[in-house]
Specification:
Blueprint lengths: L3 H10 L10 H6 L6 H11 L7 H8 L6 H5 L6 H14 L8 H8 L10 H9 L6 E4 L1 H5 L3 H13 L4 E2 L9 H7 L3 H16 L4 E4 L2 H13 L7 E2 L2 H10 L11 E5 L2 H6 L4 H9 L3 E2 L15 H6 L1 H16 L5 E4 L2 H9 L6 E4 H8 L2
Parallel strand pairs: 1-2, 1-3, 3-4, 5-6, 5-7, 7-8
Helix pairs in contact: 1-3, 1-6, 3-6, 6-11, 10-20, 14-16
């Protein structure tokens, strides 16, 4: 049963084309059903007695939830609201697309990738389990195929003499589960258990390396009243402050590069300058992409990469095409998942790296 808010947004969006040009999924698939307007039209039919078909539910899951449509909407409507509710309906009605089922099952077990934790990361999590006010939260990508980002950030914190901790058996936050199944009791309980574990460990500030978790803790968990006594600081903001305070000695790199703003960081959290401050401290000559900061284009994300890898890959390649127009041959990002996505499709004569990997090599 869709909420009145979801129905209102769908009715407002169903005949509006104003955001179709910025939907990264619609642009690479060339399907009207993959645009916010197309999904809104389908949902508005459902609220008028015509049930959604399995194909329609699949379109609801073929959304990166990158929030470009909401950011671009002059009237303030947010299509992701009804898209998440449609995903709840799919689960309730047992019509979850086949491509989504195994990912949802893995998410329920705590990892959408199902990959093992990197051994070096595992050792670091054991080593830094002692009580501290600051807790570094890694999440799925940073513990597995994006482990280079995590290990680099750990080294950076050590070089800055920061007292921090990690949970040896880090619990799932529920962030990816929220994207897959919306605002449900299962998701809230997962988040509650995670935050209780963090509180019991004695931490007061959470520093997530992945912007997806920062956004989830700051927005959803706050909305649910779960953040009592805990503060969240993004990894980029935390490290930028260390540099500003002189706790990190950074050597100039004298290289040109372009920067991909992770959509969860720049759009959902409206944080764009700390990463650029880090790049400036390294002496990076920044050659901005046309779509930067709040206008950034999603490179596929973590969930879509697992559910519809070809679609996510096409989005990554489209973002690479935009990076190439800057003339820089190095693309930097500030999200372990984005770093993994870009690495999988690196064009000839181009390179990509994570901002913390680059900074670790520049700090002595």
């Amino acid at each position: 049963m869709f909420s009145s808010q979801a129905r209102k947004i769908a009715d407002a969006c169903r005949f509006c084309w104003m955001c179709r040009h910025i939907c990264p999924v619609g642009l690479v698939s060339c399907k009207e059903g993959n645009t916010p307007r197309g999904r809104a039209l389908l949902l508005s039919l459902d609220t008028r007695g015509t049930s959604l078909t399995p194909d329609a539910y699949e379109l609801m899951f073929q959304c990166a939830l990158c929030n470009a449509c909401s950011h671009d909407c002059a009237t303030g409507f947010e299509p992701p609201v009804f898209i998440r509710e449609a995903r709840v309906e799919a689960i309730v009605n047992d019509v979850v697309p086949e491509a989504v089922k195994p990912v949802l099952e893995r998410a329920m077990d705590g990892s959408i990738s199902g990959l093992p934790v990197n051994n070096e990361v595992k050792e670091a999590m054991k080593k830094y389990h002692q009580k501290a006010d600051i807790l570094l939260y890694l999440g799925d990508s940073a513990k597995t195929n994006g482990s280079k980002s995590a290990l680099a950030l750990i080294n950076i914190l050590k070089k800055a003499n920061v007292s921090f901790m990690m949970l040896e058996d880090e619990p799932d936050s529920g962030a990816h589960l929220y994207d897959l199944m919306g605002n449900t009791a299962d998701v809230q309980n997962t988040a509650k258990e995670c935050l209780n574990r963090i509180r019991e460990a004695g931490a007061k500030t959470i520093v997530p390396i992945d912007p997806t978790y920062s956004r989830f803790f700051k927005h959803q968990c706050n909305e649910w009243g779960l953040m009592d006594g805990l503060k969240v600081v993004t990894a980029t903001a935390f490290v930028a402050e260390l540099i500003a305070e002189g706790k990190l000695k950074v050597e100039k790199q004298n290289i040109a590069a372009t920067f991909h703003d992770p959509c969860r960081l720049s759009r959902d959290l409206e944080e764009t300058e700390p990463a650029r401050a880090i790049l400036a401290a390294m002496g990076i000559e920044l050659q901005e992409m046309f779509l930067n900061r709040g206008l950034t284009k999603c490179c596929g994300g973590a969930v879509l990469k697992e559910t519809y890898p070809k679609l996510a890959g096409d989005m990554t390649k489209a973002r690479w095409d935009e990076a190439k127009t800057t003339g820089a041959n190095l693309l930097i990002t500030a999200c372990p998942c984005c770093a993994v996505n870009f690495s999988a499709y690196t064009p000839e004569n181009m390179e990509t790296t994570d901002i913390f990997v680059l900074l670790d090599s520049a700090c002595k």
